[in-house]
Every structure is written in structure tokens, then in C-alpha cells.
Amino acid sequence: MLQSNPPLLQHYGELVHHPSEFPALVCDEPKNGVAMEECQLPLIDLNDLNSDNERERLACSRAIARASSVWGFFQVVNHGMSPELLRRMRREQVKLFQTPFERKTTWGLLNNSYRWGTPTATSPKQFSWSEAFHIPLSHISEEACYGEYNSLREVMKEFAAAMSKIARLLAGILAENLGNQKGVFEDICDESTCFLRFNRYPACPISQEIFGLVPHTDSDFLTILCQDQVGGLQLMKDSQWVAAKPNKDALVVNIGDLFQAWSNNVYKSVEHKVMANRTMERYSIAYFLCPSYDSLIASCREPSVYRKFTFGEYRSQVQEDVKKTGYKVGLPRFLL
After folding, report:
1. Residue 9 burial by CB count (10 A; 0-12/13-18/19+): exposed, middle or buried?
2. What's the pLDDT band for 258 if we cut at 50, 70, 90?
3. 8-334, which class in CATH?
């Protein structure tokens, strides 16, 4: 069998030849990887937030809130992260993923944060054709995590700080739009639970209808994605999958489950996925704005749609559901 780094083909082959103990997901049938159309996500220029014109500042804030309510996704340009920093980060990311598979799995790189495929998958429908480093911000400064990749540490620290600044700016705007203080999340979102995820989606020789990342919603407040131009990101819009057209100058932002619960369904955490590419590999980096595990998530408006819960409770329920059923249930578990 063809060898690969990581051995995704071998694992996928095992799933194909062994029946699943869980029922197959039906959300994508019969058009598993086929997006109905390619769309341009709402594009927002963050320079307008610094305008001397109050009307322009307010229009920008409202555009962010509107996109979060209607799409659950949007793009931002003039976000303050330099192109040079993005290039340096991408170079280091590619170098890291080019490491032999055995080293990635055994050398303890980045605090043993390496993941590949989907260990819990029992059928092809639950399998992600990808590999990742899932890194808490609290470990970024630890020199022992980097081994021979010393140049990665400084770039990652600078990149994480820039992403954090953008995430907190956007979260503050979204909170203010609902009548709350901009700094409402400052105390509960700390480095112990916010994290970066480096993603690589190898070219998939089997089919273009293989998931690079299975359909899901994010279990955070919001996510900021830096991606290349290969494409593959799809999201659910008006009950159908649409492909998000890459924009080389933009970062992609999406709302997570916690913001949907906190906003009482004003902002939408939208199901999304990544489809594998038959001939090209894809790289991306995601920043996840998360609270501490004991933070209480309660609606900012009444009557509340969801019962109160902690982030730790939410994560535990998600993990339990995936273990028992093969997929994430998420917010419906917490409806009143």
C-alpha cells in the first residue's frame, strides 16, 4: 500500500473495509463534497473602525454584527497583521509538517500537540484527511516544546499575539452591539484555553469527496482563520453547502457555539467543513478564542434559549457525544 506522511490512506482503507458501529451521518447525502455554489463571504475593512467619521465606524461595527447574525462567517482586511509575518509563519508551518511522521508522533513537538486523521472514526463519514498541531497559547513560550525548530518559537509568539488582538477586538464589537461592555470577555478568555491549530490537508488520491475536516461547528466564542489559496472551506447557508472563495488579503472569521449561546441565538455558529483536494495540499492556521473551563456561559438576553453551563461542561458533553455516537451534538444538548 502507498506510504504517506501521515498514513491517512492506510487508516481510511481500514475504515472502508470495516462496518461502522455507529449509524452513518446523513447530513451530506447524496452530495457529500459538492458545494452548490462558490460564494464571496461578507468582506469588512477594519480600517473603518479607526475612521474620524463616526458614521463609518458605526457602519463597520454593524456590518460585523450583521454578518455574524446572517452568515456566521465573514472576512476582514486591513486587520493589522503584516504580510511579512504571515509569510514567515507559513514558512515555519510548512517546515514543521515536513518533519517525518515518526518524529511528529514521538518527539513531543509543541507539547505533544500533534494530531492526524480522526482516532474516533469508525466509518469514512467520520474521517478527516488532515493533520494538525493543536497548541494552547500557554505553551507557546516554552522552549522545550520546540526541539530543533527554534525559529518557530518567536514567529509563533508574534503571530499568536496578533491573532489574539484581532479576536478580542471583534469579540468586543459583537458584545457592544448587544448592549454589553467591550471588555466582557477579557477576564475569562485566557492563554490556558485559547489556542492555535496548524492544519495541513494533504492531496487526497482517492476522491475529491473526502472530508479534509468533517462537518462541525466550533466550540469557542469565535475563530480566526488564515488560509492559503487552495480553497476547500465550505459552510452551510440557507440549507445548502456553499464554497468560500479564498481571498489572499483576508482573514476568515466565524462565530462559535459559545457566542451563539451567549447572544441567545442572535449570532450564528454555522456548520462548516473542509473538502480534500485531489492534487494540491492545503495549509491553514486557526486561532480559537475560548474562556477558562470554569467560566459560566449564560445568555445576555432573556428569556434565554439555553440553560447556563460552563465551558468545561460543554467540552465534556461534546467529547462524550463523539465517543458514544461518532459525532458532535453541541448546543441542542443545552436547550431549555
Report:
1. middle
2. very high
3. mainly beta
